[in-house]
Molybdopterin molybdenumtransferase (Sporomusa sphaeroides DSM 2875), 413 residues
Amino acid sequence: MEFFDCISLAKAQTLINNVLPECTTAVEETELIEALGRIVAEDIAAADHLPPFNRSTVDGYAVLSRDTFSAGEGAPVMLDIIGEVFMGQSADYTIVSGQAVIVPTGGMLPAGADGVVMLEHAEQSDQETLLVAKPIAPGENMVAKGEDIKPGTVFVAAGTRLTAAEIGALAACGIARVKVRRRLTVGIISTGDEVVDVIAVPENGQVRDINSYTLAAMLTAADCQVTRYGITKDNYADLLAAIGKAAGENQLVLVSGGSSVGARDHTVQVIEELGRNKVIFHGLAVRPGKPTIFGLIDHVPVFGLPGHPVAAMTICQMVVMPLVSRLQGSGSCKAGWRIPARLTRNCASAPGRDDFLRVKLIWQAGEYRAEPVLGKSGLISVMTQADGVVHVPADSSGLYAGDVVLVEVMREA
Ligand SMILES: Nc1nc2c(c(=O)[nH]1)N[C@H]1C(S)=C(S)[C@@H](COP(=O)(O)OP(=O)(O)OC[C@H]3O[C@@H](n4cnc5c(N)ncnc54)[C@H](O)[C@@H]3O)O[C@H]1N2
Ligand code: MOO
């Protein structure tokens, strides 16, 4: 039996970057609310000032702040109330020194006013006379025209994955439709004579398909359009047909199982045949995930992911997701939050190999602790217990309890 040569993770990433350096995903326009989670295709700048006029942030009296500087509880400043601004209406006044105008929270400030005295810090001795008991600073209790967003400012950059906050900013600027990248199309195939679908009751020797579900869930959460191509038997012709179809219909293909070197592991030969010798690597010096395959079929990247469910998910997160982000035109990896945490126990690692350590995050004494989740690569429960992965680089011989590590969070919430 011929065993594969493992290359380093760093070399693998360079090879992937070299063959697929940039985003080629087409652009489409979508309704604002449909744009949540999508990747913005071009820089978005504001056309106007936000807000378009000076606004009060409290219920009170619009004034010239300098008129109030000498105000105090025992020595109120007296101002003339010249009118009232109503909510949603233009403030058709100009105030000068010695004058005040009643304004509601969110109301427009009259010209000349540079601050608002809160209702509770002033008293009306009659309808036209205001006694101010507390000074305000210039700009206090108001939002200035353009203070939020200035015209011409790029407030959502190309490559941003839209969250509720950007959706709100776009709404504020009157942008009802957004140019976003088309969803990356991803085909997913599970292989294995022993693998049966979720609705089947497995017989002895059989297991239900986990990987096409975990992978589809991860890619869907990363805003991809996923097609599951079911389960293919460990049979060269069936695998050739399935991978060929998936590569013809998608921008990325993930095949789980059959990536190792056993007699039934055909994935690499199939990619080689369909891609005309475009297998770029087979074997990574990582754990888990050693038998990972990467190749191209007519420019479509195809990964052969290890069958063990922990390995399939981990390689998807650490190797496939960065490529997905790049192909999507996104600067940020969907599930790529890294947070510092203190390791709770020693973890050995073989030098010369990158290790991906599964950890559970526990909030304790004002910091996160990273508790290693022990368990074999074939156990899906390892992943239900883990919150993320710690990358132990190839030049490390391990980590010590108390080390502060970066945890790549894999959990959505
Ligand atoms: N002699 C060696 N044997 C193995 C090696 C090795 O270096 N030398 N590597 C091991 C490692 S590491 C892994 S990971 C697996 C990878 O094997 P394959 O990618 O070829 O996957 P299979 O053999 O098809 O399956 C492995 C394992 O995973 C289960 N599996 C497969 N697909 C699914 C699925 N869709 N859902 C749930 N479980 C799945 C399968 O039943 C096997 O138990 O090879 C080791 N062997
Ligand atoms: O990829 Mo295998 O699961 O390293 O154990």
